[in-house]
Specification:
The structure is a single chain. This protein is mainly alpha-helical. It has one domain.
Length: 187
């Protein structure tokens, strides 16, 4: 805890839960479902493009590191697509769950998926990218269409870090939404 009494008070205060009508809750649930569906559609399309691009590199480049790196990126991307479905898809509604509890569980599911994106989304792509970049740096001549050097590699690392940070920020926004939901004491 902080020694600043104002900061301590602010940190320990309870967030007043919002009260939603059934209509408002249904609207929020539909909105969340739509956002998740759109996001996942774009993610799956990105997976297809990554697999197509690195699949073409398997045939375009005879260098072993580029081929191995491409194969690892493809495998990592397939794993990511499976994890998007497993962790970040919209779970079907259960007739046994009241609307508020279902909505809370969906928000928690999305929050948890976003918090761990470094492990199941970024992590599986790193080995393939490292091997591929190693091949670019050591097995291709300067006329190849890939950027070289520390700057290019740091730019790739920065993009991956930004992906993680954006997802962590979005997870924190979902947590604030969860904190504003009334607590359902019926279950």
């Amino acid at each position: 805890m902080s020694n600043d009494p104002v900061k301590s008070l602010w940190q320990t205060q309870q967030v007043a839960p919002a009260h939603f009508s059934q209509q408002e809750l249904q609207k929020k649930s539909r909105s969340l479902h739509w956002r998740v569906s759109v996001r996942n559609t774009f993610e799956y399309l990105a997976c297809v493009l990554v697999i197509a691009g690195f699949g073409s590199y398997l045939y375009e480049f005879p260098q072993p590191l580029l081929r191995l790196g491409s194969a690892l990126v493809i495998l990592g991307t397939l794993y990511v697509a499976w994890q998007i479905h497993r962790r970040a898809s919209d779970a079907p509604a259960s007739p046994a769950l009241p609307g508020l509890l279902y909505h809370r569980q969906q928000l928690e599911r999305q929050r948890d998926a976003l918090r761990s994106v470094w492990a199941w989304y970024v992590g599986p792509l790193v080995p393939g990218m490292v091997v591929f970049r190693w091949g670019v740096e050591t097995q291709l001549d300067a006329s190849a269409p890939f950027a070289r050097g520390l700057g290019a590699n740091l730019a790739i690392a920065a993009v991956l870090l930004i992906v993680v940070l954006i997802n962590l920020y979005t997870a924190s926004r979902l947590q604030r939404q969860i904190d504003q939901l009334p607590i359902d004491h019926s279950h």
